[in-house]
């Protein structure tokens, strides 16, 4: 788990992460988002919104982690949703989280 958080921090320092509902939705629509990570403790409405949007635009989605941990890993307060805008970082994080039990959903 720590490895995934370290990778998220590295991606943030590289400027390859966008956060926030509207900014992530815009990145999904413009095909800028290569991977979306949604906190497992997000509301059901938020989960449905991002599942539907990612499904429509064929963007991989990971639901898992806690909002506090997502925020801390990128040096910010709590975060519900993140989008990685770099294919290399997205592939690296998908590979890391595919083996974790804390991740509830990977699409």
From TrEMBL:
Pfam families for the chain: Ribosomal_L7Ae
Residue ranges of domain Ribosomal protein eL8/eL30/eS12/Gadd45 in the record: 3-89
Keyword tags: Ribonucleoprotein, Ribosomal protein
Any single Gene Ontology cellular-component annotation: ribosome
One function term, GO molecular function aspect: RNA binding
Coiled coil (UniProt feature): none
InterPro entries per record: Ribosomal_eL30-like, Ribosomal_eL30-like_sf, Ribosomal_eL8/eL30/eS12/Gad45
PANTHER family: RIBOSOMAL PROTEIN L30
Name the record gives this protein: 50S ribosomal protein L7ae
Organism per entry: Paenibacillus zeisoli
Classification lineage: Bacteria, Bacillati, Bacillota, Bacilli, Bacillales
